[in-house]
Amino acid sequence: MTTTMRTIRLASAALALFTGTALAEEWHGFDPSNFNGAMLSADQLKAMVADAMKVTPAKNGKSYTFGFANLQRDITFCQKVEGGIKENAAAAGITLDIADNRLDGATALANAQSFVNRNIDYVIEFQTDANFGATIMQQMHDAGTKVTAIDIPMGDATFFGVNNPRAGYMGGAYLAQAAIAKWGVDKVKAGYFVEGELPQSGVIPKMRTDAQVAGFLAAVPGFPQDHVLRFDSKNTLEESFTQTTNLLGKIPAGVPIMGTAINDQATTGILRAVKQGGREADVIVVGLGADELDTLTSEPNFVASVGSFPERYGNYLIPIALMQLAGKPVPPAVLVTHVMVTKGNVCQYYPDRKCTSDKGIDFKFPQDAFNKYLASLHQSAELKDYQSLIPTN
């Protein structure tokens, strides 16, 4: 383990960065409902494995093999998730079989079938196409294989990932407040809000991008609805760049362009498209994930990102899997607790990064407006089966 990782673990012990949506018992120092996000020791993880083996022996009769189907292995966020899973699996003595879903549902289904054919003991799925979730889960059920799904729900799999309503609302509200601080409210109302969505992933990630819009509008009452421009980012910088370039022709010269998206990569695509269009002075963006730290720290107009700490996902995912294999109760959903990461505070969360004197805005989260927004989500017909993924405040 690197010195940086040790430092992050020590720093994270002081921060409650994740929260569960239901109570669960503590087990070898791990309670998914009340855990600080720091990696457990190798002794704790191996003790978990020993207990799990008594209830659910390894299918090969020797040691556990877990499957991890990553969303796409060359995306920074996914690389950080994978790194954390690898570190925890190695410490626990678990063999890890990694596949790449390549942002494609058919590929994810083929990977799942491969896991089943090889008698994998447990599967962690990170796959983007909601239309394939039920089919993948049916294969897992038929094989008697338990699953945790990252960020996109899959049937009765345990859910782990972004607190979509809060993360989105935070980012949208921060973007609006930063824009007002830069240009003034009247000029902001003459500007355009650009939103990079991900429709293929279904209603749960849609909560994130819808909340980004809602948070922005809550902070800028009277912003014209026809100045909200949405596009399908397909979760990539490249597609976001292309679609934003296409939208620039609809935005008058000299007005503010305020952008955010499903993740840091798509947000970066917005920023690069506007810069290439010769309108750098008109744009600010806020990301989601805080995994593109080079961009956050070097680009003046990338003013903040909502931190999700993907490098710590494995600190949850491996213990959750072992808890299930040991027959212990696990919440149906464990959601990330988010913070705004800026150039002025990045060193607090990533000690290998330097903070600058740019402290950003004095951000005020609009809690009352957010509470009303949450109430509307709880009443939404399309979300009636996902109440555990909607926070209460």
List keywords for this structure.
393 residues, alpha/beta, Rossmann fold, 2 domains, seven-stranded mixed β-sheet, six-stranded mixed β-sheet, 13 strands, elongated, disordered N terminus
Intertermini distance: 37 Å
* Unreliable spans: 1-22
Kindly report the name of the CATH homologous superfamily of the largest domain. Response regulator
CATH class of the largest domain: Alpha Beta
**Number of helices, where a helix is a run of at least 4 consecutive DSSP H or I residues:** 14
> What structural class do the secondary elements suggest?
alpha/beta
Helicity range: 40-55%
* CATH architecture level-2 label of the largest domain: 3-Layer(aba) Sandwich
Overall pLDDT level: 93
User: What does the main sheet amount to?
Assistant: 7 strands, mixed
**SSE string, helices as H and strands as E:** HEHEHEHEHEEHHEHEHEHEHEHEEHH
Total domain count: 2
Radius of gyration: 21 Å
Number of strands: 13
CATH topology of the largest domain: Rossmann fold
- Net shape: elongated
Largest sheet: spatial strand order: 1-12-6-5-4-2-3
Strand content: 15-25%
What's the topology here?
Blueprint: H1 3-12, E1 18-20, H2 42-55, E2 65-70, H3 76-92, E3 95-100, H4 105-117, E4 122-125, H5 133-143, E5 146-150, E6 158-161, H6 164-183, H7 185-189, E7 192-197, H8 203-219, E8 228-232, H9 237-247, E9 257-261, H10 264-276, E10 283-289, H11 293-298, E11 302-307, H12 313-325, E12 333-336, E13 339-341, H13 346-349, H14 367-378
Helix pairs in contact: 2-12, 3-12, 4-5, 6-8, 9-10
